[in-house]
Amino acid sequence: MNPGSLKINQNTAFLMIKILNSRSKKFNKQLNYFLNLRKFNFGSKSAVVKKIISDVKKNKDKSLLKYEKKFNKLRKLNKKNIFFSNSEIKYNIKKLDPKIKRSIDIAYNRILKFHKNQKFQSFKIRDNYKNIFSYRSKPLERVGVYVPGGTASYPSSVLMNCLPALVAGVKKIFMTVPSTNGKINPGVLYAAKKCKVKKIYKLGGAQAIAAMTFGTETVCKVDKIVGPGNEYVALAKKEVFGDVGIDMFAGPSEITIIADKYSKPDWVAADLIAQAEHDKMSQSILVTNSKDIILKVKRFINIQLRFLPKKKIVLSSFKNFGIAVLTKNVRETAEIINKISPEHLEIYTKKPETYLKLIKNAGSIFLGPYSPEAMGDYLAGPNHVLPTLGTAKFSSGLSVYDFIKRQSVIKITKSGIERLGPLVINLAKYENLQGHANSVKLRIK
């Protein structure tokens, strides 16, 4: 399909967002086209990532340092300074604006409080033969958190990835953050210290993922890796899955907003822009049954973009991936949302609960006019690490449960195996597994 066939007026920034009408015979084809546009086509990047991972696995620190010097320009990096020393951390934190420090403190407390409610319910049952069956949990021992560096350096990512692990009971949390040209965001270091991170490595890219997966002379091997990153990081996580656990294979960020004639168009415009400024690959979608709201939002986007520092990123995101969908009614709107399965869903309508009842697929849902997605990014409390690219159909956002292992414990009594064993023998023989049958038969002679 040629997106140029969708009658796009190129005079304004908003009209780079394609308008789809659900009444059109081509609607489903058009919607699928835009939803699939951002799915990673790694091509040659896959080969590069595989080479880096293999190299670090084999040569450990030697290769790790080689790639850091090549990609992040850390010419003086060596085994002794590959992680931040206590003095470096203290020095950088001293430079942090007290207002930012206070904001991180409040965010920390709110996120921690929310995640403390995610408690695993263990249980133990006893049957008629006094057999005992229980279900319990144990925290992971070592977790690696990847935090983006450079221009995209987020203290909020530290809190969202580390705090669920802390609540789960993980004792050793390690963190990697690229330190391009030796620079580091002091807010990231402050958040990491609050979250009791054991070591903060000056590492990034696929080489950091490989180092945490297999371990090196200086980097500890972990059980699971979480945290956002660029295409190379995402592909590296996918590549090492199986040798180590990962949170999810996440793509660029996205938002879908349901609006109606009662929505404030300038607020809707601001929220679409807020998501688009994340990345050129971000996707912002407006779904509404009001043609008038589309026209008004269009006008406010152009007004608000005039003074936005990341205007070029937003324009690129809108031009390539932004769409507005005009629908007939509430039910059809909900069906379209469930098909999109967005990472973030804002229901900004007069009666948002009406839509909420019909929504099945979304990473995180924001209800009403005073719940912009930006609140969830920082300190509302729920986690902002969420499924993207339609994966909300079958997965959930990061939580305490991602950092615990669930285990069943089985204790069969003598009378229990005597009563139930013959049934197991019958089934084992039926499946032609004589060894299984024999292991039970020996105990009930």
Protein architecture, described:
The protein has 445 residues and is an alpha/beta fold. The chain contains 17 helices and 14 strands. α4 (86-94) packs across α7 (186-194). The longest helix has 18 residues, at 98-115. 41% of the residues are buried.
Radius of gyration: 26 Å
Question: What share of the residues does DSSP label as strand, in percent?
Answer: 15-25%
Helical proportion, percent range? 40-55%
Give the distance, in angstroms, between the N- and C-terminal Cα atoms: 71 Å
Largest sheet: 6 strands, parallel
Envelope shape:
globular
**Low-pLDDT stretches:** 1-12
Q: Average pLDDT value?
A: 93
Task: Describe the structure concisely.
Helix content is 43%, strand content 15%. It has 445 residues and is of the alpha/beta class.
Please render the helix and strand layout as text.
Layout: E1 18-21, H1 27-36, H2 44-59, H3 61-71, H4 86-94, H5 98-115, E2 123-126, E3 132-139, E4 142-146, H6 155-168, E5 172-176, H7 186-194, E6 199-201, H8 205-214, E7 224-226, H9 231-240, E8 245-246, E9 254-259, H10 265-276, E10 283-288, H11 291-305, H12 311-321, E11 323-326, H13 330-340, E12 344-348, H14 352-356, E13 364-367, H15 373-378, E14 404-411, H16 414-430, H17 434-441
Parallel strand pairs: 1-11, 4-5, 4-7, 5-6, 7-8, 9-10, 9-12, 10-11, 12-13
Antiparallel strand pairs: 2-3, 3-14
Helix pairs in contact: 2-3, 2-8, 2-9, 3-8, 4-7, 5-6, 5-7, 6-7, 8-9, 10-11, 10-12, 16-17
